[in-house]
Design goal:
- With about 675 residues, the protein is mainly beta.
- The protein folds into 3 domains: about 270 residues, no CATH class; about 110 residues, Immunoglobulin-like, CATH 2.60.40.10; about 290 residues, no CATH class.
- Helix content is about 5%, strand content about 30%.
- It has 7 helices and 38 strands.
- The strands form 12 sheets. A 6-stranded mixed β-sheet has the order 2-1-3-13-7-11. A 5-stranded antiparallel β-sheet has the order 4-5-6-12-9, with no helix packed on it.
């Protein structure tokens, strides 16, 4: 399981000379009478685990394989012998040598190769717990006496040039699968002059091993028992990594025998699921109540692709969930790791972890399981889901959530037969002002903000039944994780409350938001009575904000003459309705057709009643900051252009009329927005 390469550096007066030798020379060096400077490099390789290195015998070759396999998969490795001559001067010069590690595996997802200090010293003795955490090159076997040539101050993420009397490692930038940090550095033709900009890192302590190579495909399909020494001569059957070691020594270095041990570890990669390194139980988390009312003590079990002996101590682990509609990071509490045998009585198995799920909104998350003991981090994709009875935020809405509300008929418009309804928070801020319920009716409250009323209607879609009230700013970007956009977008114009803004006629590049009367939320509009005799009293609503069409489509309408379907200031999971005809489900025209409001003489009054609850906030004219036709008309943008750069299609509700494909407004006028859930 173990391979050792001795490093002999003889100290004589002003000059130290030495050579890397094969493993057969190691015992002679340690027991001989010549004063030497010795470093032993150990490599421990396992099918899918770190094995504790032990001192090698006087072997004659340096090929190491592991007999523990997962299914039919294995990993093998072979390292080349190198020579290392070190000369001390009053101002030490850098001396370098490289070791090439050949690794092969038939695992379909490749392997990861790590480098770190060994748990054992070169005498085959286990280090103390404190010494396992140390890195660098230490005096003799008694590490507590201090270091003669300590570790370089650099790390694997920020390597640095070697100072006087320091040493470190570097990964050749041309090595396949090398970490990105090494690819930009000159570690193909290292210099041996006075220390230069060639950068090195300290070999990390036990439990903090650094990744030095990663592959994602198999090297060979040769069965393990058919692999021969000749196969190592075929470069298509393995992947090579070159590791440089550099040291600087001046006259301050004393003659003596010094040693320590480095471990290489190869871990085959196995993905329990096609989606990543982790699998989950439960596969998704279904919240047990609305966000603020839910109990957050549910346990998540995670099975990783780390394959280890059953008695392995996995040490401390950290599990985080990152993403969701807030794009935030949450820690999974009380994380504990155990090893689950692959079958009854097996001596090896997969590392599994349990933790208490954190409080988070429904959405897609990346789960990260960090195992410092092995120097590895595994990731996978996880989802929080909700239903109609547990949804709390606009950004939690999905097609499945809307479907879970059940089928809705056109007859559901009375107290005794209402449509499904929820009040949802917009995680970006803003929100409606309507309070109440389907029994007592609804009223406007200027002090109650932050949630929109959402209903499932008879077109089987979920709609906002209050106007959007998101105030935009040139200092605040909108993001794809909480808004119906593909990339970050920042408005180019702040909310307008006063006249005097210059807008060229037909200029649809203006993405403006308008206050209704200069004081957000103070103006209200009134819906009609329900058409049912057992219906609701009249309700008042806030007018929301007024948006130019350029703002409604999140700045994507600058030169567009076609529709802008997938970009709007609606919350993520929502979009603007279509302005097309009544054959298009998801359009204003289709919704009105379902309710047969277009064929009624009082169709507009019906649309302004339960359950659609449309209003008549009028239109905002930028030129003099004035609201026009409030209480007489309502207008709502669609994502559909009229077919020119000047106008777009909207819904218009007059006192006795409905125009589902109204094209009488310029794009820079401010009108209302109501979003429907994507489907």
């Amino acid at each position: 399981m173990v391979m050792s390469l001795g490093v002999n550096i003889k100290l004589t007066g002003e000059t130290m000379t030495g050579k890397f030798r094969g493993p057969g020379s190691l015992r002679n060096v340690l027991t001989g009478s010549v004063a030497v400077f010795t470093v032993a490099f150990c490599a421990a390789f396992a099918s899918s685990s770190v094995f504790t290195p032990t001192r090698s015998s006087d072997a004659t070759n340096n090929t190491v394989t592991a007999n523990i396999t997962r299914a039919q998969y294995y990993v093998k490795m072979k390292a080349s012998d190198v020579e290392f001559d070190l000369e001390s001067k009053p101002t030490g010069a850098m001396t370098v040598a490289n070791s090439t590690i050949k690794t092969t595996t038939n695992a379909p997802t490749g392997y990861k190769l790590y480098l770190g200090m060994s748990e054992m010293n070169s005498a085959g003795q286990e280090k103390s717990a404190a010494d396992k955490l140390k890195n660098g090159l230490y005096l003799d076997e008694d590490l507590s006496s201090g270091s003669v040539i300590p570790a370089a101050p650099g790390t694997a993420t920020t390597p640095v040039a070697l100072d006087q009397n320091t040493w470190g490692y570097a990964v050749d930038k041309d090595s396949t699968g090398a970490p990105d940090v090494w690819k930009s550095l000159n570690h193909t033709a290292m210099t041996s002059a006075t220390p230069t900009s060639d950068a090195f890192a300290a070999v990390p302590g036990v439990g903090s091993e650094e990744l030095i190579q990663e592959t994602t495909t198999r090297n060979t399909e040769i069965p393990e028992d058919e692999w021969t020494e000749e196969d190592w001569e075929d470069s298509s059957k393995y992947t090579a990594a070159t590791v440089w070691y550099g040291a600087v020594a001046n006259m301050a270095v004393e003659t003596g025998a010094y040693s320590n041990t480095i471990a290489y570890t190869a871990i085959t990669q196995f993905g329990p699921t096609p989606g990543g390194d982790l699998s989950f139980s439960p596969m998704t988390y279904a919240r047990n109540d609305r966000y603020d009312d839910a109990t957050w003590n549910d346990t998540l079990t995670i099975t990783s692709s780390l394959f280890v002996p059953v008695d392995t101590d996995l040490g401390d682990v950290t599990i985080t969930l990152t993403g969701g509609p807030e794009n935030d990071s949450h820690t999974c509490g009380d994380a504990v790791g155990t090893v689950v045998p692959i079958e009854e009585g097996a001596t090896s198995g997969y590392a599994a972890f349990t933790c208490t799920l954190p409080k988070a909104y429904a959405g897609d998350y990346t789960v990260s399981v960090e195992v410092p003991r092995y120097g590895v981090t595994y990731t996978g994709n996880y989802k929080y889901v909700v239903t109609w009875s547990t949804i709390s935020a606009m950004q939690e809405m999905t097609k499945d959530v809307c479907l879970s509300a059940g089928n809705v008929t056109v007859n559901q418009r009375t107290k005794s037969n209402p449509v499904p309804e929820v009040f949802l928070e917009d995680l970006r801020g803003g929100g409606g002002h309507v309070t109440g319920n389907n029994v007592d009716g609804y009223t406007y409250s200027a002090t109650q903000t932050g949630q929109y009323r959402v209903r499932k209607l008879a077109d089987q879609h979920c709609w906002m039944t209050e106007n959007l009230e998101l105030e935009m700013s040139t200092g605040t970007a909108l993001h794809p994780y909480d808004t119906n956009i593909a990339a970050n977008w920042t408005p180019t114009t702040n909310t307008i409350t006063t006249p005097g803004q210059t807008v060229v006629s037909g200029d649809d590049t203006v993405d403006r938001t308008y206050h209704g009367n200069g004081s957000e939320g103070t103006a209200t509009v009134t819906t009609e009575d329900s058409v049912s005799t057992t219906g609701y009293a009249q309700e008042t609503q806030g007018i929301g904000m007024y948006y130019s069409w350029g703002a409604a489509v999140a700045g994507q309408g600058a030169t567009a003459t076609g529709s802008v379907l997938n970009s709007s200031v609606c919350p993520k999971g929502w979009r603007l309705p279509s302005g097309e005809g009544d054959a298009v489900n998801g359009s204003f025209a289709y919704l009105m057709k379902v309710y047969d409001y277009t064929a009624q003489s009082d169709g507009s009054s019906a649309a302004r009643s339960y359950p659609l609850s449309y209003t008549q906030p009028g239109v905002y004219y930028w030129g003099d900051a004035t609201l026009y036709r409030q209480g007489q008309n309502g207008f709502w943008w669609s994502y559909t252009n009229k077919g020119s750069e000047y106008k777009a299609i909207s819904l218009s509700l007059g006192n006795t009329s409905i125009a589902t494909q109204y094209d009488g407004l310029q794009k820079y006028y401010g009108t209302s927005i109501r979003c429907l859930a994507e489907f």
